[in-house]
Amino acid sequence: MINPLVSILIPFKDTAMYISECIRSILDQEYKNWEILAVNDHSKDHSLDIINNFAQDDARIHVLDNTGDGIIDALKLAYAYSRGDYITRMDSDDVMESNKLQVLVNALLTRGKGHVAIGQVRYFSDKGISNGYARYEDWLNQLTKLGANYSEIYKECVIPSPCWMLHRKDLELCGAFAHDRYPEDYDLTFRLYEKDIQCIPCNEILHQWRDYDSRTSRTSEHYAQNYFLDIKLHYFLKLDHEADRSLAIWGAGYKGKAVAKGLLEKGIHFYWLCDNPKKIGKHIYGKELVHYDQLSQLKNSQSIVTVANAEAQHMIKSYFSHLGKKNMKDYFFFC
Description:
Elements: E1 6-12, H1 19-27, E2 34-40, H2 47-57, E3 61-65, H3 71-81, E4 86-89, E5 95-96, H4 100-111, E6 115-118, E7 120-124, H5 131-146, E8 164-167, H6 168-173, H7 184-194, E9 198-200, E10 205-210, H8 216-219, H9 225-240, E11 246-250, H10 254-265, E12 271-274, E13 283-284, E14 287-291, E15 301-305, H11 310-322, E16 331-333
Parallel strand pairs: 1-2, 1-4, 2-3, 6-9, 7-10, 11-12, 11-15, 12-14, 15-16
Antiparallel strand pairs: 4-8, 5-10, 6-8, 13-14
């Protein structure tokens, strides 16, 4: 398989301002053996006309209408019509670097099945990038540089949705797009983690990720914070929680309360740790908050950390290290 066919799945909805630039960046790829499965998700602007014009000039571009609703249904449809040995996604408002497909294909050809090829990303915007997105970009790229993405999987989505490539059989092994859980990219990332699909390190920026006010991840309810917390807790309990060990939550802010509520609803016992003198000894949802030094009294425990402050996280990591506890085995940062 010297030049495998790459299927590029592109759901699109009302991205007429950007979709031409997106498609041109694919046409300009150094790697030429690809097909596009572009799915119109009920656009109200002239996105469909634009992509149809490209399809008339290039037989590798196939345009479909979403028979369902939303990104997941669009991805299912695109995947059903795809023929490639390798599968990748693309956002219709983003831009590929000209070597993106070649780099990802080469990585998979070198490493073989059981791997996901990923690339570094760069955010761009007409209005400039916020500090939050800049920090996320740097954090994500540092993980990708080392291929250590899963080491912080419970913080945020550690594989960028429009910058990965998989062998079809590995995607099938992970359930492809059959799941209906949002955020869909985070859900797929957890399923790759579950099946031990290894991340291939990459030190190149391969994808330009556009940010703007009406971007789906900013406007859709499916990307609200509660969805992220639900998916984290779901996969933690499925993949990493050891029921015979004590469980503790560290932090009593919004995220700590949401996780605590989720555990209570599932009937899972836990200890609730806090370093805020005003909260220690208080009861929330009928659970008493205790000082974090109680953790040293819990033998063979696991901890979920919901504290977001960077300085506090550093202190917490030092405390766990003092207790001889290890990341992703004994403690898990949820933010």
